[in-house]
Hints:
This protein has helices at residues 3-33, 44-48, 56-74, 114-125, 145-153, 164-171, and strands at 83-86, 89-91, 100-104, 130-135, 158-161. Helix content is 49%, strand content 13%. By secondary structure, the chain is an alpha/beta fold. The two termini are 27 Å apart. Helix 5 links the parallel strand 4 (130-135) and strand 5 (158-161).
Amino acid sequence: YRPESVKDVVVGILNNVELYGDKSVIDYTNKFENVKLTDLKINVDKISNSEKNIDKELKDAINIAFNNIYKFHKNQIYESKKIETTKGVVCWQEKRAIENVGLYIPGGTAPLFSSVLMLAIPAMIAQCKNIVLCSPPNKNGELHPAILYYATLFNIDTVITVGGAQSTAAMT
């Protein structure tokens, strides 16, 4: 293991994705995941219909987790207070949401779909305007239906079937 070689590979991926866009991302998905994709973006109808592809027990567990995690993060909202530290000098903190957010969800053979909750709930509460979700596909080029169901909970309509450094490069 040589960190320099890993860095060189990642820099190469970032440069190729910047130069060649989706074609490069599709090529890397084929190379690293051994999956041949024709399109990176999941169809909105497939996202909308994802609820039909997960069982009631899993959906109930997702909804319970959603509510619990939402309550926790909602409580973290900071209310700014203006403080006059010296006569005529007013100080305060101001926090603003990031407008564009990319969520990377581990997927493939062992999807960690609960990661969507941990990342998307704070983005939703912060009112981020544009949320993109990326996750590597399984061997059939598909994402776990629970990941797509999560996307419906957060009104995320841009779901990309890609992982690794190329997904980060694509989101940037």
